[in-house]
Every structure is written in structure tokens, then in C-alpha cells.
Amino acid sequence: MTGGREPWPVRLYRRTAWTIGDFSADAADAFASLYREERRRGRWAATRLSARAIVDLARAAVSSARPRPFAAFDHDLRWAWRLLRTRPGVSLVVIASVGIAIGANTAAFSVVNAFLWRSWGSAATDQVVRVREDYAQPGQPSDVRGFTMASFGPWQRANTVFEAMAAGTGTSATLIVDGRPERVSAGVVSGNFFDVLGVTPALGRTFTADEDTPARRDAVLLGDALWRARFGADPGVVGRTIRLNGRLRTIVGVMPRGWKHPYQSDVWVPLGYREDPADRTGIYVAARLKRGVTLAQANAELDAMAARLWQQHPSPDTPTGAQVTWLRPEMLGRLSRVLYALAGAAVLVLLIAVANVSNLLLAQSLEGQNEAALRTALGASRGRLVRQFLTYGVLLSSLGGLLGVLLTFWSVGPLVALSPLYGAGEFDIEPRLDGPTLAFTLLMTMTVGVVFGVLPAFGVSRARTSEVLRAVGRSGTLSIGSRRWLKGLLVAELTLAFVLLSIAGTTAQGMLALKRDTWGIDRRDVMTFDVALPRQRYPEHARQADFVHGLLEHLRALPGVVTAGATSMPPFYAGTEEAAFTVEGRSSPSRGLLAHSRVVTPRYFEALGIPLIAGRCFTESDGPASAAVVIISQSMAERYWPGANPVGRRVKRGRLDGPDPWMQVIGVVGNLRENPSEMVPGADAWYLPYQQPTAGPVSDLTYVLKTSQGVSLVPSLRAVVGGLDPELPIFDAVTMEERFARFTATERLSANLTALLGATGVFLAAAGVYAMLAFSVRRRLPELGIRAALGARPADVRRHVLTEAAVLLAVSIVAGCGVSVYVRPWLDANLFPSGVSEWTAVAAAAVGLALAAAISSVGPATRAARVDPLRAMSGR
To answer: How far apart are alpha carbons 32 and 37 in whole angstroms?
Structure first.
């Protein structure tokens, strides 16, 4: 000790403790004191100080050191940060893998939370239900339908389970602002509608009781998007007047952002409900349950109330029961299943990343067993080693979690853009990084960090202190237990990747099956657009018919248009209209006979390529003065006239003794698929001629043109409609292929997201295969060198490594098949019920995973084949 410098054993201890140990400054000071005491006693000579003596002294120093609060945690954190910096390659791979997995799960949680769990900006998600009527007779299946204007009043007065009931319906309207016409969706609602759903306007007020009367219906509420687009978000818009369907209305308020309920409304006007027993107009009814009333109690009470109403007015038009359902599932529909599937796939990606990173960290820790043994020799406890690796794992996962949050911030927008919102888009459902989402991310990050730390800590904590000195500087093959751990983790992630890839294959098959299916029409070269005739300016059906006839004639005269027709409800519409009917000659009129109903013009079937199977199509001669006629679908003909020709038979709308006239079947056309859940095209349907009274008043029509010009024809369409009526806008001008894409958006979303997550999972699994084989080859270099020295050819060594990978892949595929067998039927039953083959998806997943594993195995196998026997056996 000269010049104030500490003896070299003390300096060595301080450097060693900081580099590979976990000791406080007190321990270092204690070591220095003990060393000086032993030297004072003359027990050691500086040149004869043995390694064993230093180890014994270090243990005594650790035992005598006084622990400092938080000093151990601070040291663990700094050690973890130093380890992260000394292994930049491994650290970057781990952080990227964790970031991708946590980002996928955070994005999935934000979407699922927004749709399924979070409040939609009102009490609708918690207390409001939708109510329907059930017309089923005793012993018959449920015949659930929406309310009618005639029945809403009696239900409203007699119910005892709701605090209030509100009614609404939807229509289209022409809005004129600054002389420019625009089609908007209008919600026609009762005055208490917004109070029942618990929403307040962002500006102004809702409707008063006086405004919700037939005599005073001049108020209007604007939607947020319309207010911003057409009024420049002017806060002084309340009190201004606008022209809606030719009628002046006063703006009384602006609804909050995201609110478009019901029926994707852009504006809202009062319903002005007036009870009329003859008014069979369908309406949507929402209600708020009384406090303490359950859904089951509400259904039971309404069924009993319906029975009392039936006894008072026994009629086929009187409901026999009711159905009460929560509003959120009503709005989500099939989308809820896709969201849960998305969450499940994201969890699989996370598990793959956890297995992959744990495998990588375990491999790194096994290489550091010598270091762990040295720490143990210097006095570190096994629990302290575990805590250090836990700190390291949590640090890595925290950095990965931060990356995942950034990825979520960038990806949520595009993810929402892919989402088929439909009814759920009527509420505030925008996914966002809110408190619950960030709390979920934090919990997931901590959990993943603990998992990352436990496995490597378990591996290194088994190092034997007695072998520390002779193990330093040596390398060799792994123990059997260590190799089992590494291979087990690799098999687990490959199995999960196989399951995820098989799910992606299933959804991809289903999407392709939907696209290949014609759905009963020819979607190619078909252009569509909508026109709504305001009833204030077109009150009579004859005037509406004249406009439709003139417009179709002008459309057919356009260059490039082969033919044109119109329909009240086009294929691939989000909803359907069903009509009750009676077949002549049946013994009893049953309201259980239902068919999809469409009003069409001549040449509609020709424009869509719907084949005529028997009889004839509508012509211009099927007018108001001619006999009532109808065209039916092939499935309807086979159901009610099996083995016979239905042409010339008669059906009528409603019950047998109803006022509607009998209609003669003049033709049979091909079946249409009305929704993706149908196995094959085959829904019963009938078609009514637009010009006849049996079609009823239809002011909104979709025009269908057979043309190859597509959207380039839109300016000509606007010019034609504007020439007939300058105040009429056209809207929703899209091709039939675009309508199909929107209609199958739920299935498309599922296919796209599962394909993306499947590719991510396979990429992570392939990286795991590469990392494990590269580590195995590096640790087995002496063994491989001996094989090469004994005459093994490079091809034999390469084959040996590839065989090891092939065995692991085979085990993973077998295990994955067992899991996929249980997963695939659920997806098949709920998302893609047609065109999906279980074994095709499994085979595609096996091929994809095998290809990824083979690519990942080439590098390590090539390196093993090029091993130099002398360098490998010498450990260099």
C-alpha cells in the first residue's frame, strides 16, 4: 500500500464485484478491512494469496456488510442496464420481438375494449335494451319482428319494467345548404329518444314535447360530421334554418362526436307519434330498464303482458310475446365474434414471442453459467441471482412495452379504418390509448418481464460453485436438462405458430370462398347508385313512377350502358325486408310464412344476371291497371310447390282474410344469398313490380346498370338526374363489387388481421428456430469438430443439424394439429360456414411453417458443415 492506493486484492474485488457481482460499497469496505486485518496478523503474503482465500474473504465481507435500503435494487437495475448494453444484438432482437407482440396485443385490446367493454358515450351500453314483438303462435318457432306504430302506444302504456320507451325509424332526406343538394340519413325519433339513451347534445338542446307532435315537426338536430362539413363547425349554428326535403326546419342542437344512432343518421327530426291502429309502419324501439330489473324478468313480464293484450284483441296482427335484448350485442352482430378471434390471435402472438425470447435469454444465460458460478462463489445467494435476472427481464420487457405502445399509436388508426363499423359505428367507439388500455399494457409488460426472468434465472441458478474455477474458460455441449428446456420452448412456440397459421388459413379459405361464390348474381361490370324522391314533392305514386320510368330510359340511352333497372333493396344490403304471405290452397293461414321482399322494375334481373328459370320477367305492361303479379325465387317454388310448376299459382301478402289482393306467379328466378351465414344461395324471396299498387309506396330506389365504365360514369349519372330534377342528388354511387366488399367487411377484417398476425407469429417462430440452432451449433463445436476429425463429411454434419430441426418441427406440427382441431370448428361455425376445409388449412399451415423453419435452419447447418476440426476442438 503505497501512495494511498488500495492493495491489489481490494482493487480486484471492487472491480469484480461491480462487473459480475451484486455487492454494495459496504461489502467492498468490509473486504478491505478484513484483508488489512489478515495482513496485519501476518497470515498471508501478498504474493501467496490464493484464489480460495479471496473467495472465503469475500463471503465473510458480504456476511458482515450492513444492507442499505434500495441499494440492492439500484445495483440490480444498473447491472441489467450494463448487461443490455454489452449484448446489443440480443437486446435489440428481444426488444423488437416484445414490442411487436405487446403492440399487437395493445392494439387488439384497445379495439376490443372500445367495442365490447367501454361505454359508448351514453347509458345505452349499460341500461338500454332493444324491444321487439313476437308473433309466434303456440308451438311455433319464434317470429320476432320490430314494433309497429299501431302497437307502440299500447306497449308503452301497459309495461311495468321500463322507466321509459322511445321509438325511432330511419329515412333518407335531401338537405339543401347554400343551394347545393345533398342526400343525408335522417333519424325520425320520439322526443324522449335521447333522454332514454342517456345522451346530451354538444350544442343546444334536444326536442321538446311540443315539437314532438304532428302539428309541430319543424325542429332538427345536426350530426357532428355534418355540422363540421357543411357548417364549418360554426358554434352559432343553433337557431339557423335549413331546407330538408323541401321543408324549412330550425336547428336546435348538434349531437356529440361519433353519435349517429339510429340508422347511421346525419340529422334527426321529431317523430310526432300519433297512435293509429291501422298504421303498420315498422319502428325501432329502445327502452331503459328500471333499476333492479333483469333482462330475464323483463322478458317474462312482457310475455305476460302480451298474453293479456292478446286476450283483449285476439288477431294475427296482435303480438303474442316480446323479446328484450341488450343494445350493444344488437349493434355489434357478427363483429363481436371477429373481435374475440382477433384478441385470441394476438394472445397467441404474445405467447410465441414469450417462448421465443425466453428461449433466447435462457440460451444466453446458459452460456453465462460460469459467471453465475463465480457470483455464487463470491457469496451471492441463489435468490439474489434470480432477482437480478428478473430485473433484467422486466427492463427488456419495459423497453419492448414502450415500443409496443408506439406501434399501437401508429396502428390503431389504420386498424379502425379496416373495421366494418355498421351499426356499432353509430356510437363513440373510436379505439384509443386510454387509461384501461395503458393499464393493460403495463400489466402485460410486467408479466412478460417476470416470465423472461424466471426461466433464465432457473437455468443459471443451478450452476455448481465447486466447479467454478475449473469451469472458467471452458466450453462444451449443454447438459441434457438444458437442451430439453431449449427444445421444449422451441416446440411450444412452433406449435403456437402452427395454430395461428392454421387459423389464418381457415379465414383466408373462407374469404376466398365468399369471393368465388356468385351469390346468385353476376357482379362484374355492374354500376349502382341511389336516388331518394322527397314525398313532399313526389306525393303520389304515379308521379314517382313517371320519374323512375323517365330516368331509366335516359340511363339506358347512355353510351356504354347495356341495360338498367331499379330495386327497393339491392343485393349485399346490410338489412333485409321480410313479408308475411299466404299461399292459395293452404288449409290455414300461418304468419310463419315469410319471404324476402323486393320491389323491382323491368330489366332488373337482366342487369344483375339473375337467371330466369320459368315463366317471364316483368314488362312495362305490368302496370297499375293490370292484374297483380309476382315473381318468386327457385327456393320458394320448391318449398311450396314441390315437383310442380308454380307459374299461374297465387299468393298474397299477409293473412288469408287480409285486404291485400291475390297475386299471380308469372316467373321463377334464381336464388340469392342474402347474408354470409347461408350455406348456399337459397333464401325464399319474391319480387313485386314497381308500378303496381301491391308494391306499396317506395320512394328510395337503387339503380343498377350493366356497364363496363364503372365509376367513370358518375358525372354522366349526375347530369341525367340533375336534368330531370336539379334538387335531387345521387348518392352511394359504387360498383356492385364495392357493395360486396362492404357487405363482407367483417369477414375481410378477420381474414386480413389473422393473416397479419399469422405472418408475425411465423416470423417470430422462424427467428426462434434460427437462434436455437445457432446456439446449439456454437455450443457443440467441439463435438462437431470430433465428428469431422473422425471422417464425417460436411454433408453429414449438415444433415445432422437439419434432422434435429426436422424432428422438432414434426413434433410441433403434430401438437399443433391437436389444438387446431378444436379451434377450427369454432371459426368455421361463426365466421365462414361455407367453403372451408379443415385439412386444407392444416396442410397449408404445415407447409408454411416447414418452409419458414427450413429457411431458418440453413444458416446454422451451413456453419456446422464448415467447422474446422482443429479450431473447434481447441475451443477457438
So the answer is: 9
